[in-house]
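Problem 12. The chain below contains 85 residues. Write out its predicted structure in token notation.
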Amino acid sequence: MKQVCEQFIQDTTRSMIQPLSSFLTKVSAFIRVRADSKASNNAVLREQVFASAERVKQVVNEAHMLLRAQLDLTQKSLSVYLGNG
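Solution.
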């Protein structure tokens, strides 16, 4: 039962934060590449297409909509589980 609960939490969390996770993966890759290239790469994160102010706003809005949409379903799933506990 513990493993099922842990999997539920992991799957729910992953689906709710997917847009943010994807964005942060791109940011991490950018920072890693920039660090590896040392001084030869003067790229600025906010100047990257994926990190523009408009794109960041879009990612945050997507995450917010996912959270709102999935929260009700998650609460229902939890109440079923807790009701059976």
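Discussion. The chain has one domain: 15-84. Students who got a different answer should revisit the alignment rule from Section 12.3.
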